[in-house]
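Regression test attached.
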Amino acid sequence: MANYSADLSSVYYALADPTRRAIVGALGRGPEAVSALAAPFAMALPSFMKHLGVLERSGVIRSRKEGRVRTCELVPKTLSQAERWLAAQRATWEARTDRMVAFVEDLHRNESSRAKPRR
Amino acid sequence: MANYSADLSSVYYALADPTRRAIVGALGRGPEAVSALAAPFAMALPSFMKHLGVLERSGVIRSRKEGRVRTCELVPKTLSQAERWLAAQRATWEARTDRMVAFVEDLHRNESSRAKPRR
């Protein structure tokens, strides 16, 4: 990650909209010019550009202009950070569940050994 | 997932705040009463309750009240959905990268076989 770290709040905020998630889905198949990217969306271009702005400021996508064509592409590293945070929460939660299962199994083993009839 | 599916937009929106992410982190270690959960945060209780409300409405956490104590816990399934969406985007992107690498390798192989001196 070096000295680059997207702000997780702005990344999750960027993903909190179905249009913006659809844009991310489309760019997963490769970089695309804004006009081609916008075409499937029933939306005025200024509104669409606002969504691209939110995605770009969060670091989820980046764009470059060559002549009159602006091309957008995903920044996979940013999405990875958002995925890693969620994976870390799951790891914490699963570790806790594992400890609980081990505890209950121990309890059960002790109960059964105590329940055995003595001879 | 059956007939339950949290709205991804509200889930990502819920995660787009450092306080709410810290609450998720704390609840990963187990259910907790609101008062204990709020203690480490330098924040008035009404503001804290608003954050809990956003998390609960998105399905990231749930709470129950027993007597005067409200206890919160994570809903791991909701976070898993958010993680899976990100993993799916990565899979799409990685499949594309793999195809590009294969394409470039093919190109390189063809170039080298053509560059061999003929006898």
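Expected vs. actual: identical. Residues 1-5 of chain A have pLDDT under 50 and may be disordered.
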